[in-house]
């Protein structure tokens, strides 16, 4: 069949069904680190070679180094625009890699000619390190600016510093001599809005005024954020990670990583976090870093002219984004490798490491947290964990998996409803409603009123002698002589009150996060998920601590929890719960554990973290293998083939290829029998993105594949630059122009834009292999042939549609026995005589064969010479 329709601008906003209405046949290409041995073949061999009789399926690759290099060699004067891509299309990784090899070969061949050429060669070699250095510097600087601005604007909802308006609450009280230890956050320099407006610091009037001002500022920040996004940069909304994953897989989304998106996302991220919505800034920081990487890549021709090389920079940029988001450079590299990157060669690993290092160094120099540390939630626990604690840690993992499964289903259901109802047409109203509900409910509870990062920090912190939080309101033993290792103590009234408030905060966070993630403001998911897990973990930790105190003679506690011993650390449970809930939502494992122990400095507690994260993944996978980012990719209809998803069905390439019986015939070009006008009419009458080129209508032998965009650009360029090219000019894709009458107009040779070795499979290739080829090589399309005769085409759109249909109509787990025989009919009929064949395909299928088998024969009959 033909290539698919061009993507329209609204493609990304539609549901999965949008792929049916408007999508590109140019799909993801991975290049997933597969080393292939491409073979050289002459054109005659390519045209005349038949599939061997004894093999069930064959595959030829269209990314041959020799063929693509030959293509480039033929371009004595490259046609401007050929090889570029339209919006909402996927890059050709094979062609981009061949272009890069040709560029590298050309530079190496000239570097010994002069000192200038040697300097150009060195510049080209170091340009990769320069671009990731600039990306790391910009990412660290912007992250520091966002952290400082968000802290200041968050405190602005409660009051203002009179001595220095640019100080937040904590900074305002640093130089005060009138601050007490119990009320360290209160100082004369900081005044609440009630003190400024009505002159009251306490009482009902003060509480109501502060309540009103809190709601006012929250709504103002939220309205300003959504307005800026809607007017200036619609791509600045959301987390950005689903789109980053899709872009790194080879998809083109013009403007998503542009300068306007970077500017608006940086500003609105501060406003969204300061508004108090249940969201975080960590996910959007990955988007910000990738915008920096994309912008700086245009300064270097090596990356600006090659989309595949540019994605190596974006992979390094995503590592820098996580590095500055959490202060976790190693975790950032692993996050890029495990979660977002589709193609991650070894040199990208090194550059990602360097970019994360530079970004972390810049952030540490800025010191936005004021604690002279890179990590966000540094903790220092004084007791180890014990073996019996693995059971509550695993329970927290179960909770994290259940929370992740619930959140993914609930959030996707709400986002789908938003897309299908009129409510989705009013994004500003939705943001205002969510912000209003969040502010009204959050203010009365001190744990929901807090900035989410401050809440997590408080939940992670161990109760020492200097802590005055209600979470540390224990009944002290006056005989205790230790000041560092405080023994387990009975909980006081403040602890029980805090537990009830934390339970309410847990319910509030769960509900509001479902409705907040996906609204039209920058919204990350890392911090809200960690806050939910930290709340649940702290509650469980306090419960286990009190259980060990009152029942220290139980078998499980007897060995470790003696009277006066400090054996339970509730803050550790909060840290484990945070990791479990984030793992349940994102299904990350290795990178998540590294991020959390870098985030907290708790390297000693890596085993509990690993146990909880793996448990949450197993529990979450029991309800569905998709993480939240993969679910949103599928919801938005992005052309993304997840490498983690297994294909277990038994269909064949003939079942998926186009055209089907009810479709129009396959649109093809002949190598030397069509005119310019014929090709232009075919392009105007169809919306396909490419056309197989065959020898003639009679033979149907495959010559190559030509892209619609390249054909259009080449014909337009020829009309402008070559004399004698008219509508009746013969178009020739062959190496030698056929003899024409003397009065014929000048022929147009387009062999230079032809892919002479497209990827092909036979009609009986199992779809399991076809899907694997698309995933690992990131193909845009694959032609289906039989003995060199073109039968149809399989594109990424066809595979996505096929996978969606199989999910709705699952095949039985135990297929019939003949599926194991590649679904070929037996060679002999019931009478003992050989079955008739045409082109080596049997014409009398057995009764169990599907209807598609008859259609294959129909297609073969129609292609007979």
TrEMBL record:
<dbReference type="GO" id="GO:0008344">
    <property type="term" value="P:adult locomotory behavior"/>
</dbReference>
<dbReference type="GO" id="GO:0030165">
    <property type="term" value="F:PDZ domain binding"/>
</dbReference>
<feature type="transmembrane region" description="Helical">
    <location>
        <begin position="498"/>
        <end position="519"/>
    </location>
</feature>
<keyword id="KW-0067">ATP-binding</keyword>
<dbReference type="GO" id="GO:0098982">
    <property type="term" value="C:GABA-ergic synapse"/>
</dbReference>
<feature type="transmembrane region" description="Helical">
    <location>
        <begin position="428"/>
        <end position="447"/>
    </location>
</feature>
<feature type="transmembrane region" description="Helical">
    <location>
        <begin position="313"/>
        <end position="337"/>
    </location>
</feature>
<keyword id="KW-0813">Transport</keyword>
<comment type="function">
    <text>Strongly outwardly rectifying, electrogenic H(+)/Cl(-)exchanger which mediates the exchange of chloride ions against protons. The CLC channel family contains both chloride channels and proton-coupled anion transporters that exchange chloride or another anion for protons. The presence of conserved gating glutamate residues is typical for family members that function as antiporters.</text>
</comment>
<feature type="transmembrane region" description="Helical">
    <location>
        <begin position="572"/>
        <end position="597"/>
    </location>
</feature>
<keyword id="KW-1003">Cell membrane</keyword>
<dbReference type="GO" id="GO:0045335">
    <property type="term" value="C:phagocytic vesicle"/>
</dbReference>
<dbReference type="GO" id="GO:0005524">
    <property type="term" value="F:ATP binding"/>
</dbReference>
<keyword id="KW-0677">Repeat</keyword>
<dbReference type="GO" id="GO:0062158">
    <property type="term" value="F:chloride:proton antiporter activity"/>
</dbReference>
<dbReference type="GO" id="GO:0045794">
    <property type="term" value="P:negative regulation of cell volume"/>
</dbReference>
<dbReference type="GO" id="GO:1903428">
    <property type="term" value="P:positive regulation of reactive oxygen species biosynthetic process"/>
</dbReference>
<keyword id="KW-0050">Antiport</keyword>
<dbReference type="Pfam" id="PF00571">
    <property type="entry name" value="CBS"/>
</dbReference>
<feature type="transmembrane region" description="Helical">
    <location>
        <begin position="386"/>
        <end position="408"/>
    </location>
</feature>
<dbReference type="InterPro" id="IPR002245">
    <property type="entry name" value="ClC3"/>
</dbReference>
<dbReference type="GO" id="GO:0005247">
    <property type="term" value="F:voltage-gated chloride channel activity"/>
</dbReference>
<dbReference type="InterPro" id="IPR014743">
    <property type="entry name" value="Cl-channel_core"/>
</dbReference>
<feature type="transmembrane region" description="Helical">
    <location>
        <begin position="211"/>
        <end position="236"/>
    </location>
</feature>
<dbReference type="GO" id="GO:0030672">
    <property type="term" value="C:synaptic vesicle membrane"/>
</dbReference>
<dbReference type="GO" id="GO:0055037">
    <property type="term" value="C:recycling endosome"/>
</dbReference>
<dbReference type="GO" id="GO:0031902">
    <property type="term" value="C:late endosome membrane"/>
</dbReference>
<keyword id="KW-1133">Transmembrane helix</keyword>
<keyword id="KW-0325">Glycoprotein</keyword>
<keyword id="KW-0812">Transmembrane</keyword>
<keyword id="KW-0129">CBS domain</keyword>
<comment type="similarity">
    <text>Belongs to the chloride channel (TC 2.A.49) family. ClC-3/CLCN3 subfamily.</text>
</comment>
<keyword id="KW-0406">Ion transport</keyword>
<dbReference type="GO" id="GO:0098978">
    <property type="term" value="C:glutamatergic synapse"/>
</dbReference>
<feature type="transmembrane region" description="Helical">
    <location>
        <begin position="257"/>
        <end position="277"/>
    </location>
</feature>
<dbReference type="GO" id="GO:0043679">
    <property type="term" value="C:axon terminus"/>
</dbReference>
<dbReference type="GO" id="GO:0035249">
    <property type="term" value="P:synaptic transmission, glutamatergic"/>
</dbReference>
<dbReference type="InterPro" id="IPR000644">
    <property type="entry name" value="CBS_dom"/>
</dbReference>
<feature type="domain" description="CBS">
    <location>
        <begin position="657"/>
        <end position="721"/>
    </location>
</feature>
<dbReference type="GO" id="GO:0051932">
    <property type="term" value="P:synaptic transmission, GABAergic"/>
</dbReference>
<dbReference type="GO" id="GO:0005765">
    <property type="term" value="C:lysosomal membrane"/>
</dbReference>
<dbReference type="GO" id="GO:0042581">
    <property type="term" value="C:specific granule"/>
</dbReference>
């Amino acid at each position: 069949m033909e290539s698919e329709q061009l993507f329209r601008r609204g493609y990304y906003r539609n549901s999965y069904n949008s792929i049916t209405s408007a999508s590109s046949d140019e799909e993801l290409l991975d290049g997933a680190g597969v080393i292939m041995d491409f073979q050289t073949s002459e054109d005659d061999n390519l045209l005349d070679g038949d599939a061997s009789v004894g093999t069930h399926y064959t595959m030829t690759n269209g990314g041959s180094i020799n063929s693509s290099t030959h293509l480039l060699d033929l371009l004595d004067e490259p046609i401007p625009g050929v090889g570029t891509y339209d919006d909402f299309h996927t890059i050709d990784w094979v062609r981009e890699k061949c272009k890069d090899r040709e560029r590298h070969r050309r530079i190496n061949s000239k570097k010994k000619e002069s000192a200038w050429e040697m300097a150009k060669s060195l510049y080209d070699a170091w340009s990769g390190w320069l671009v990731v250095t600039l990306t790391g510097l910009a990412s660290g600087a912007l992250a520091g600016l966002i952290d400082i601005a968000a802290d200041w604007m968050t405190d602005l909802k409660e009051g203002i510093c009179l001595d220095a308006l640019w100080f937040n609450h904590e900074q305002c009280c640093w130089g005060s001599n009138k601050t007490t230890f119990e009320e360290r956050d209160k100082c004369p320099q900081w005044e609440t809005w009630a003190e400024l407006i009505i002159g009251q610091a306490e009482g009902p009037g003060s509480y109501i005024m502060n309540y009103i001002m809190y709601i006012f500022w929250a709504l103002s920040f939220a309205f300003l954020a959504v307005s800026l996004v809607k007017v200036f940069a619609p791509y600045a909304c959301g987390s950005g990670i689903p789109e980053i994953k899709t872009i790194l897989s080879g998809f083109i989304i013009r403007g998503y990583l542009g300068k306007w998106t970077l500017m608006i996302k940086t500003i609105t991220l501060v406003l969204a976090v300061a508004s108090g919505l249940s969201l975080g800034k960590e996910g959007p920081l990955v988007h910000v870093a990738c915008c920096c990487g994309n912008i700086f890549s245009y300064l270097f021709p090596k990356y600006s002219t090659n989309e595949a090389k540019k994605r190596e920079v974006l992979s390094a940029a995503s590592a820098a984004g996580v590095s500055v988001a959490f202060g976790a450079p190693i975790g950032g590299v692993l996050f890029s490798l495990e979660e977002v990157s589709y193609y991650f060669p070894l040199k990208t690993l090194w550059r990602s490491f360097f970019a994360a290092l530079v970004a972390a160094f810049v952030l540490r120099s800025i010191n936005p947290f004021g604690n002279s540390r890179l990590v966000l939630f540094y903790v220092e626990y004084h007791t180890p964990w014990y073996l019996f604690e693995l059971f509550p840690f695993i329970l927290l993992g179960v909770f994290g998996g259940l929370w992740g499964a619930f959140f993914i289903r609930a959030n996707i259901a709400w986002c789908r409803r938003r897309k299908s109802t009129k409510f989705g047409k009013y994004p500003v109203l939705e943001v205002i409603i969510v912000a209003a509900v969040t502010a009204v409910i959050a203010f009365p509870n001190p744990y929901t009123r807090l900035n989410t990062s401050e809440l997590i920090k408080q939940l992670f912190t161990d109760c020492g002698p200097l802590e005055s939080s209600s979470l540390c309101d224990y009944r002290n033993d006056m005989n205790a002589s230790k000041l560092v290792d405080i023994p387990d103590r009975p909980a006081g009234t403040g602890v029980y009150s805090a537990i009830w408030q934390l339970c309410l905060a847990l319910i509030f966070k769960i509900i509001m996060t479902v409705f907040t993630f996906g609204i039209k403001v920058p919204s990350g998911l890392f911090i809200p998920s960690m806050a939910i897990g930290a709340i649940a973990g702290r509650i469980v930790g306090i419960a286990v601590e009190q259980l060990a105190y009152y029942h220290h003679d139980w078998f499980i506690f007897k060995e470790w929890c003696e009277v006066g011993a400090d054996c339970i650390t509730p803050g550790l449970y909060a840290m484990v719960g945070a990791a479990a809930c984030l793992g349940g939502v994102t299904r990350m494992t290795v990178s998540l554990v590294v991020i959390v122990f870098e985030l907290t400095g708790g390297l000693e507690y890596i085993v509990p973290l690993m146990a909880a994260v793996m448990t949450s993944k197993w529990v979450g996978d029991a309800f569905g293998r998709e993480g939240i980012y993969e679910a949103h990719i599928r919801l938005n209809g992005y052309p993304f083939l997840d490498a983690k998803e297994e294909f277990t069905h038994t269909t064949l390439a003939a079942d998926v290829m186009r055209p089907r019986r009810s479709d129009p015939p396959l649109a093809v070009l002949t190598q030397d029998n069509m005119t310019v006008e014929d090709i232009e009419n075919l392009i105007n009458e169809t919306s396909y993105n490419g056309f197989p080129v065959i020898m003639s209508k009679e033979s149907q032998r495959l010559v190559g594949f030509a892209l619609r965009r390249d054909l259009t650009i080449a014909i337009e360029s020829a009309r402008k630059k070559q004399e004698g090219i008219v509508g009746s000019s013969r178009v020739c894709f062959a190496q030698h122009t056929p003899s024409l009458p003397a009065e014929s107009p000048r022929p147009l040779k387009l062999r230079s834009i032809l892919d002479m070795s497209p990827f092909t499979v036979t009609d009986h290739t199992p779809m399991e292999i076809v899907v694997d080829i698309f995933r690992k090589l990131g193909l845009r399309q694959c032609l289906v042939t039989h003995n060199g005769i073109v039968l149809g085409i399989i594109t990424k759109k066809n595979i996505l549609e096929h996978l969606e249909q199989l999910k709705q109509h699952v095949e039985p787990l135990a297929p019939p026995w003949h599926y194991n025989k590649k679904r070929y009919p037996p060679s002999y009929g019931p009478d003992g005589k050989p079955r008739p064949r045409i082109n080596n395909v049997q014409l009398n299928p057995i009764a169990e064969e599907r209807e598609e088998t008859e259609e294959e024969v129909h297609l073969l009959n129609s292609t007979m010479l």
